Amino acid sequence: MLRLIPNHPAMLIKEEQRKTLVIVDLHIGWEMALSEKGIHVPTQTLRLLEKLKSLIFTYKPERLLILGDVKHTVATAELGEWQDVPDFFNELKKQVEKILIIRGNHDGNLEPLLPENIKVASTSGITAGDVGFFHGHRWPSPTLLKCKTLVMGHVHPVVAFQDPAGFRITKQVWVKANCNRTQLIKVLLQKHKIKIEKNPEETLLKHFKVRPKTQQLFIMPSFNEFLGGKPLNKGEAIGPILRSEAVNMENAETYLLDGTFLGTLNQLKTLS
To answer: Domain ranges in the chain?
Structure first.
């Protein structure tokens, strides 16, 4: 069972007796990138940690799953990250039994920063119950198509509104989009250089032992609310799966963190 946590960019997955708290896009160390441009912002890592510890205390998950972009630098790690990332996870280990990270595009050289017993999974994603998780900067594994629901991050989804006087407001949102299952299978098989034989479904079953069930895709807002995002109602979505014809982004539903339905992306484009 998948549950969006009200007023927080986080979700809870229940599998029999186990609960998993899911977040994405921490970008620990993002303040250092601003500092290099002459913008000095106090570190927000402690604030992120306290917010996450509060959720763990409230919902008592057995596992924490982070869908990537733990740190901000892409290929390496800045000096501040060598302190902040280990401290962050050492504190979390006191609160939750298991921590799993799916590698994001900002997580190069991440493993040396992590304490022991924290696992890092491939960018192609993992499954938990009937939900498939991946970061979003690369294609998910075809094995995730056995799940009814896919969940990704990477996009930092926000919507922007502007009134006639030029006043502009930006809000974090959840995005829920329908998937064209057949088209998604075709695209993923093509990416793996697999020729479709009788039909896409039978070919997927033959090569990956998967009977596809995928119907919908959720895009998670970033857990670090200080990060910007490209307003989805003002331009093209990023990430290969969202640029494909397999996800209906035009009619994707958008929800504020408190659950308020804003409308589809196509409807919101007229208000941007």
So the answer is: 2-271
